[in-house]
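Hi there,

I know you've been waiting on this one. I reran it after we fixed the sequence typo, so this is the corrected version. Both the input and the resulting structure follow.
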Amino acid sequence: MLDEIDRALIHALQLAGRAPYSRIGAVLGVSTQTVARRYQRLRAEAGLRVIGLPDPHRAGRSQWLVRLTATPRAAQDLASALSRRSDTSWIKLASGGTEIVAIVHTTPADGNTLLLHDIPRTAGITSVSAHYLLHLYVGGPTAWGARATTLTQDQERALSHPFPGSTAEVLPTDRKLLTALGADGRATIADLANQTGWAPATVTRRLADLEASGAIFFDVDVDPNAFGATTAAMLWLSVPPAHADAVARALAKHDELAFVAATTGRTNLVAHALCPSPDALHTYLTERVGAIEPITALETVPVLRTVKSAAPASAT
């Protein structure tokens, strides 16, 4: 479990993923060495990672939430194979290990290869459904609320960096930079320069331009078990279109939900719930979700484990 300093550090990284340890320490009121030690410990014990990602819409990419049902023998091998692809993220084994839920990133240039060709040819799959992500309410640049509640407003302001205006977009020449940031969003300028072949000043300027324009953002991966969230489930909801936005915005305020999105398909909203126990999940579903009247149907799919979390899509 995390203590107050750990939680504050994670919150700080969500706001300023590349902030120096010294700056974070000054805001948290602890030493630079304490921040560095906590960061390294959380990396080792809680899977903490800062990842630089392109805004998918700004980068001309589409995101699909794919549900695959497979035979028990095939499911784990399939999930592992999908995790090795650069165009997948957030791969989860669910429904007793016979269902895989994954986000697939596509571009017009790749012809939706995984969706249209690779998946149907994979042995062991018994059903496939693909849901186009229309709008994210929680997820991506919008952090899971439960891990962004520790800092005061003054501390948040101290970590916020007012960038000058920028209209920069992700370009094909940013491919190596995005790959490097996807592996480690806190990589040093020297490391990024080495991996891109650019001068350090060029890397610094390009990073500032892309972040200022919102073309890239920095996400934080950390094991939700460290927050005491040991029970996870995907929620597939049906809501009349006229109420979908209002319901999604209401759900986005729930700290139990780490992901909320509008999708195409038989259900039009999807969420990822994280709770301390099965009983807590039951209480959340019956008392909070159940109180939202426009929801006409709800499918709850238990998540056994996350095979792959946030990862970069294939660079443009």
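Quick highlight: The longest strand covers residues 125-138.

Best,
R. S.
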